[in-house]
Specification:
With about 325 residues, the chain is of the alpha/beta class. Strands 6, 7, 8, 9, 10 and 11 form a six-stranded mixed β-sheet that branches. Strands 2-1-3-4-5 form a five-stranded parallel β-sheet, sandwiched between helices.
């Protein structure tokens, strides 16, 4: 991972450089000002994978630099982590509005820094997967030849479906909620016979099935903007903010009806393979942001470990997670 650190304090930059250069697979370039950073960006033969930007700098501050980087075609989704000594919430709101991914407060803790860098690395990996998936989807949609060899564990970002997020973006959307209690319903949505369907169909049809299921979930969800992600093996995560008027079974029936209608319109017969299972993961309708994040992380980790059985998820004691940050716990081991 190639990181560009932009800070006009050489002492601070040297300290961060010393810490990061001890990490495997991390290379660091230093810039002493926003202008210097933009010159390095223009001259780089390969795009940077991540940016660390100090907010308070000279003529061009970190927020303006973040905004300019987002205008660059190569950096519209690259992780940008802001660094600040300020405690002002409006300042961070401006940074997020400019396109920042995350932020750190000075003085930096080495373990926290490693955790945030690990988070950025996960996001970089997800973005690369999305780019590869987008290219593969374009290839199969423009090809008349059947494509086989679909890996059911592949966590594809279905970029053609408006409203679906990569998992890490879904998590960050939850983390950006203000700390507190919310009406949130977290669902695991599964196509049980997805493996059978993917084996009997080409890659193009399998991808289209996932797109249709995604669209069916988004249409059926009792909210204008549900947070949803595909996490592999025919499994989706869906977080609905707001009061639920129906039951999980009502939600499931609505999804299945809408997807079947789309399949019928495409003249695709999945009558022997298509069914949707919907499981609500939280018993209480009002839960904290922390509890919601813990639920989605648990599901994502379960899917990533390729567990065939999915045990029921019971209520989470929210105080267990009150001081927990999974990115920091194993930061040293992972980097």
């Amino acid at each position: 991972m190639h990181i560009l650190l932009v800070d006009d304090d050489p002492t601070f930059s040297d300290v961060i450089a010393a810490r990061l250069e001890r990490r495997d697979h991390v290379s660091l370039t230093l810039a002493v000002s926003a202008e210097h950073a933009l010159q390095l960006v223009d001259a780089a033969s390969q795009p940077f994978d991540c940016f660390l930007l100090d907010i308070m700098m000279g003529d061009i501050d970190g927020i303006e630099l973040c905004h300019r980087l987002r205008q660059h075609s190569s950096y519209q989704t690259t992780p940008i982590i802001m660094i600040t000594a300020s405690q002002e919430t409006p300042l961070m709101e401006q940074a997020f509005h400019a396109g920042a991914t995350d932020f750190l407060r000075k003085p930096l803790d080495e373990v926290e820094l490693a955790g945030r860098i690990k988070s950025a690395m996960l996001l970089v990996d997800a973005l690369k997967r999305e780019k590869a998936g987008r290219a593969a989807l374009q290839s199969v949609l423009t090809s008349h030849d059947p494509v086989s060899g679909f890996d059911i564990s592949e966590r594809i970002c279905l970029s053609g479906v408006s409203g679906i997020l990569d998992y890490h973006e879904l998590e960050k959307s939850l983390l950006r909620l203000q700390d507190g209690l919310y009406h949130i319903s977290v669902f695991r949505i599964v196509v049980p016979a997805f493996q059978k369907a993917s084996c009997s169909r080409g890659r193009s049809e399998t991808l289209q099935l996932l797109r249709d299921v995604s669209q069916g979930i988004l249409t059926a969800a009792p909210a204008d903007t549900p947070f949803m992600s595909y996490i592999g093996r025919g499994r989706f995560l869906c977080c609905v903010l707001g009061r639920m008027t129906g039951t999980s079974e009502t939600f499931r029936t609505c999804i299945q009806d809408k997807v079947c209608s789309m399949l019928d319109a495409r003249s695709l017969d999945y009558s022997d393979a298509f069914e949707v299972a919907v499981h609500q993961l939280n018993d209480h309708r009002i839960i904290s942001r922390t509890a919601a994040v813990a639920l989605v992380r648990s599901e994502f980790e379960r899917a990533s470990l390729s567990l065939e059985s999915l045990p029921p998820v019971h209520d989470i004691e929210e105080n267990i997670f009150a001081e927990t940050d999974w990115l920091l716990c194993d930061a040293d081991a992972g980097l």
